[in-house]
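Hey all, sorry for the wall of text incoming. These are the two entities for the joint prediction.
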Amino acid sequence: MRSPLSKKIIEVQPSGIRKFFDVAAEMEDVISLGVGEPDFDTPWRIREEGIFSLEKGRTFYTSNAGLQELRNEICNYMERKIHVRYDPKKETMVTVGGSEAIDVALRCMLDPGDEVLIPQPSYVSYLPCTIMADGVPVIVELKAENEFKLTVKDMEAVVTDKTKILVLPFPNNPTGSIMTREDLEPVAKFVEEHDLYVISDEIYSELSYKGEHVSIASLPGMKERSIVINGFSKGFAMTGWRLGYCCGPHGVLEQMIKLHQFAIMCAPTTSQYAAVEGLRSCEADVEEMRKAYNQRRRFLMHEFSRMGLECFEPFGAFYVFPSIQEFGMTSEQFAERLLMEEKVAVVPGTAFGECGEGFLRISYAYSLEDLKKALARLGHFVQRLRNER
Amino acid sequence: MNKKQEFRIEILKYLEKHSRVDLGELGVLLGAEETDVANEIAEMEKEKIICGYHTLIDWDKTSEEKVVALIEVRVTPQRGQGFDRIAERIYNYPEVNAVYLISGSYDLLVTLDEKSLKEVSRFVSEKLSPIDSVLSTATHFILKKYKDHGTIMVPKKESERMLVTP
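and here's what came out:
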């Protein structure tokens, strides 16, 4: 019998996180710092609006691109936040999470053999989605000494005349690194010189702790070259609602909506109505959450410095990415022993690309009380390892 | 808002919910020096911006009997002194927990912590109603506290988040 599977899907490696999750789920008393979603409940106004839409019987499909009301609010929001004006009828689409937008954008923009620059460490889906879209993933290794920012020098080493797309994942999961306007300017110039397009995954844009988040689309000449992806999961604590969106040039969005129509039909209707309320009146809720994250971030940095654990100060998302190179173990070994001996779950940096070796992703989407307990355990562990050596 | 005011608001917002916080820790959370935090708090105590440090207690879970009453009071304001003098006559009773001047169909809202219904009714009939300027009272008893001082009193469900996600 011939194989029912495609060569492409066989080539895709399963996420390294899965294995870890299975072990942690079996154990008792585990404190996890391994979660990639907010600990806050969705603000009540938003939930209430979702309930109301169900009571009203709004249980039908919406238009493929999403409720016009929501698209209008998305475009207003983008103008407020990144100072780029998009046409709500032609230049935006509501998706099933940011993840769908990543997948659809790659599938609409790549021909077989086109190369995609994927900075790593980064979120786990860019690489498999590129492969499934017949593209060729080309890894750009981000370096600790650059605070895991993307530099032109890193890209110059790997760019070819087949390169078509740059994925720009900032604020970054797993490092927490951000790109400032000064950091983005040379990248934009590089993109123009090499005639590239950018898929800018800005899902963590609301969680920036050092000035306003800057989108590459707001730089001169870049709106036409950028697909900006964002969503409600992180900033609005709405992961389970599965709602994201993307904005970009009409020519690209038109095709993305076509594919989305065939593959998905439309994003969940309840979530769309709820999200309208989120964009209209939850700025203060988002601000409160951002403040809480920022306090925890400072707390973690403080604790790491007390432990003598090396970590650059990240200013985005809800992750810190400390180095464990001093212990002479791989990230996976370290994470495994930490789980077994102290019952603290963290994610090895290698789950986000090989160049994450020697680092851990620690999430601070937890209450301060939980973080204190977990950090005390981590402190013991680090001390024990140092004594062993 | 200038920097100092902003800093004060940040401190107050945190203290309002976590009055037992260690000042060194508060400094870390706000990205400030411990001494700056301590000085600012001392100043605000002096200026009576910080009026005290209280504890939120769910008395229902203790063996202590407690009845909380809200009393709406209609009064005649007095010339030259408005409501202040009447309010003072009421708030000086130690069993009175709070007195607010209220807009709308009555004037003062008085809250009372007592051990029994009987004590509340004695207070209303013997102390409050006989005051000359008091025209009428309406007493309400709190049956259950769902949320108090921004804190939900019913137990919260366990988190259902998965342990590890990308």
